[in-house]
Write a structure and sequence with these properties.
Elements lengths: L6 H17 L3 H6 L19 H4 L3 H12 L1 H10 L8 H7 L11 H12 L3 H4 E4 L5 E2 L3 E8 L4 E7 L3 H22 L1 H4 L3 H16 L1 H14 L6 E2 L12 E5 L4 E2 L3 H6 L4 H19 L1 E3 L7 E4 L3 E4 L5 E3 L2 H15 L3 H12 L6 H12 L12 H14 L6 H20 L6 H15 L2 H20 L13 H42 L5 E2 L2 E2 H30 L4
Parallel strand pairs: 5-10
Antiparallel strand pairs: 1-3, 2-3, 3-4, 4-6, 7-9, 8-11, 9-10, 12-13
Helix pairs in contact: 1-4, 4-5, 4-6, 9-11, 14-19, 14-20, 15-16, 16-17, 17-18, 18-19, 21-22, 22-23
């Protein structure tokens, strides 16, 4: 227990947490993980009988109940774990999704001093009124409606007292627990508990700072400004701070209530299509997306408009990740097994992969989609199948991909709530086609070739290090050799095409001059030179077109990245 930062408080809390786990029937699991003697006084409870009520629950349901009893920080952790579709079964994910961050309402007399401290003045001096009855209350914050002196309706999201210190204490404890699990349990070590807790730590601390949520809202609003029917609440920066978020009040019909949508005369098909357009653009084009697109975070507005709320949890996909997702879709369309397996290996970032076996199983997976048009390829299901495949090989996906996969799945469920026959790919098809087209655009290929050539030249001219450096063995050396070989081939290919282009331009000039000349021999009053010139121009044009088509097809079939 020397790993705990605050032994007295942490040991007491750790005992409490393990006692809850044992109460809900997870004593056996703790024993298998070698934790039965880790915490004081818990081993005596290991054989305690479980109540009949708990015996009737399935393990995922008992796990959810245990998390709810552990408190708000663990509820947040459970909500994050619900995004790890690569690690847990669908039954477990379904239960974790039920975790609700509801908390008792604080009286306004306790909230008002916090608002005043954040504003630097009494709320009554800043706002025309503040509604003392909250709109919502969660473990971290409470939300009140207010009106500015100019008559604008706003909402005040204020951080509750003592939340930061409580969360920091629980996070410290979670880090200690993750280290214990990594040391004592080989079974759980592959799930990288320490990395998962570090990711949760970063996520929760970002959520504690309301200015980050506000910045996320503004960035996404800027990215989506072309959608005139989309509403993202305006942020009032003059009053927003780390502990207070003041934003525009938006009134609409909750997407959780399809009957109300019908009564308002809204078109559910249009709403579902527009919602998926927003999600696809955020994920595949912008790389910044709403990571929790459940119905409660979307309102329907008059004229089939959509309001998007709550940007406390956002996901980010780097350009490389978006490229990998496009490559995966492309591999499935063209039935390229090795390319699909390569994407999964890149995602796993593991050196201990049986690539041949993985490729064989990938082949069986993508055969299901043989001959299907793009709009019938189910990306959420593909990601679930890929994750199940990676679980079989003890591979763990990066958190950004799992967050995107979870968002896809949540979005599809949300869409089907509004429109039962909702097709997530309907809005994605034109965007994916456009992205694939851009990927193989000549300008894009030229930039890629140029940047790789520069990196190669930099390597050649780089001064050797005086200190011996550890080299990555095996796959990385093969990869370097492969890239150098491919780069040499492409440079030779580019040089050949450049020479051919010079010849084509020269012949085109000669044949054009022959085409327009009025001199030379004539047959039946037809200029021989004109005929030769016309045939020559047509021949050169046809050859140029042929070369372009062949080059484009080769580039499309050969994945440069």
């Amino acid at each position: 227990m020397g790993m705990l930062s605050n032994p007295v408080k942490d040991v007491k809390r750790l005992n409490e947490i393990f006692s809850i786990l044992i109460k809900y029937g997870f004593g056996d699991m703790m024993r298998r993980m070698g934790l039965s003697n880790t915490v004081e006084h818990t081993s005596r409870f290991m054989r305690a009988p479980i109540s009949n009520e708990l015996l009737n629950m399935k393990p995922p349901e008992r796990f959810r109940c245990a998390i709810e009893e552990m408190g708000p920080t663990f509820i947040k952790l459970g909500q994050i774990l619900a995004t790890r579709v690569d690690l847990f079964s669908q039954d477990m994910i379904h239960e974790l999704e039920k975790l609700q961050d509801n908390a008792p309402v604080l009286p306004y007399s306790e909230v008002e001093p916090l608002i005043e401290k954040a504003l630097g003045a009494p709320p009554a001096k800043v706002f025309r009124y503040v509604n003392e009855l909250p709109l919502a209350s969660a473990s971290m914050a409470q939300v009140h409606e207010a009106m500015t002196k100019k008559g604008e309706r706003v909402v005040l999201k204020v951080r509750k007292p003592g939340v930061k210190s409580t969360i920091e204490a629980d996070l410290r404890l979670m880090h200690s627990m993750a280290r214990l699990l990594a040391i004592q349990s080989v079974e759980l070590r592959r799930y990288q508990p320490e990395e998962m807790v570090r990711e949760f730590d970063r996520s929760l601390k970002r959520e504690l700072d309301f200015t980050i949520e506000a910045k996320n809202a503004e960035r996404i609003a800027k990215n989506l400004r072309k959608f005139k029917w989309l509403k993202i609440p305006k942020i009032y920066w003059q009053w927003t701070s780390e502990t207070l978020n003041v934003q525009e009040f938006v009134q609409g019909i909750s997407a959780k209530d399809p009957e109300a949508l019908d009564k308002a005369g809204l078109d559910r098909e249009v709403l579902a299509l527009r919602g998926s357009q927003v999600a696809w653009k955020c994920m595949l084009e912008d790389g910044l997306f709403h990571a929790d697109p459940h119905p409660g975070n979307f309102y329907a507005l008059p004229g089939n408009g959509i309001a998007m709320l709550d940007f406390g949890m956002v996901g980010k996909l780097s350009y490389q990740r978006r490229e990998q997702m496009i490559r995966l879709v492309r591999s499935i369309i063209f039935q390229e097994t090795d390319a699909a397996a390569a994407v999964l290996v890149e995602w796993s970032n593991s050196d201990n992969v049986d690539v041949e076996a993985l490729a064989r199983e990938c082949g069986e997976l993508i055969e299901q989609y043989y001959g299907l048009p793009l709009n019938e390829i189910d990306i959420p299901q593909i990601l679930l199948d890929c994750m199940a495949l990676m679980r079989n090989y003890d591979l763990v996906l990066p958190s950004d991909i799992t967050l995107a996969a979870k968002a896809f799945i949540t979005l599809e469920g949300f869409g089907r709530l509004i429109k039962p026959d909702f097709n997530l790919m309907e809005a994605a098809e034109p965007l994916i086609k456009d992205l694939i087209k851009k990927r193989y655009h000549p300008a894009r290929l030229a930039r890629s070739l140029g940047s790789r050539a520069i990196r190669f030249v930099d390597k050649v001219y780089e001064a050797p290090s005086e200190l011996p450096q550890q080299q990555h063995r095996g796959s990385s050396q093969k990869l370097d050799a492969y890239l150098i070989d491919r780069l040499s081939y492409r440079l030779e290919d580019a040089s050949y095409r450049q020479t051919q282009a010079i010849y084509d331009v020269g012949f085109l000039l000669v044949f054009t001059l022959m085409l327009i000349t009025s001199h030379g021999p004539r047959i039946y009053d037809i200029s021989v030179l004109n005929v030769i010139g016309l045939l020559g121009v047509l021949g050169v044009t046809g050859n140029v077109f042929r070369v372009q088509v062949v080059t484009w097809w080769q580039r499309k079939k050969r994945d440069l990245n």
